[in-house]
Amino acid sequence: MKEIDIRQEKRFTDYQSKKADMLKADIPIKNKLIIRKILRPLLRCMLRIQRKFNHFHVELLNEIKYTNKAVIYAVTHIGKWDFEIINEQITKPFYILAADFININKGFNGLFMKLNGVVYVNEKSNIDKHNTKEIMIRLLKAGNSMMIFPEGTWNFSENELIYDIPYGTASISIETNTPIIPIAIEQYENRFVINTGEKIMPDNSISDLTQKIRDILASLKWEIWYKQGICKRNKLDDDYWNGFVQQRVMEWAGYSMDEQIINTFVPKEKRTHLELCEKFGFDKIPLRYRNIQFNKLFKEKYNDERR
């Protein structure tokens, strides 16, 4: 491991300890909402300059609707640029839930995330995931909005509009009585298309709300695909999927495909299905699952409970 990564690991450990100590001592969240409202136009301007420098174009199928109260932005995930592109479109400040502390929290990116507002989570630690959830609940109750990517990682699937999502987003929404604004994004080379849905109000069932979030995000993404039009299969290269994945990975220097394993949620029933396919030699498994099911990180990560 590189020396800089070792230092980052140490910083991440300290960051997790600080969260735990804050919760243990019941230290209240410092609400810097006024400061972040002042910074918001500057951050959006910086993102706009970056987008134009990269020759990215954005198409909004509809406008994002705002309220004076906290909301949870639940966003689909296709690649590195999702956060920057959608962030520029949102006029009000929010915190982002992020998993890749090692690559993100350094240099200019780390400073930008800090100014924006960020909560990092260690996906390999159940304790830190619990602590992170409690921090997010406190932030929402203090009037801060949150952005969450419920899929947890970039969607590299050949046939799933939206990955399976854990109960976390719905659970936090219900516990804080915070509405959810669903947002789907797709990337076509240098063009990004954003489709925003109607506000989802929390209800009493975590499982039902989780399914509703996934269904609505899938519908929003399908609307983007429908608008994009039909592409004939014979116009695609035989190796199209691998090329698509490689293109996404190359957009972020230092990105490891291990992040796909660590941050991927696969429910128990689907894991059982994959195990049976492996046992009986069924080879028609989608490439995405074929690439992760034999991975040691995948087999070590999951227990039988959604978190």
TrEMBL record:
One example GO MF annotation: 1-acylglycerol-3-phosphate O-acyltransferase activity
Residue runs in coiled coils: none
Lineage: Bacteria, Bacillati, Bacillota, Clostridia, Lachnospirales
A biological process from GO: phosphatidic acid biosynthetic process
Listed Pfam families: Acyltransferase (PF01553)
InterPro entries: Plipid/glycerol_acylTrfase
Keywords for the protein's UniProt record, in alphabetical order: Acyltransferase, Transferase
Cited SUPFAM superfamilies: Glycerol-3-phosphate (1)-acyltransferase
Domain Phospholipid/glycerol acyltransferase: 71-188
Record protein name field: Acyltransferase
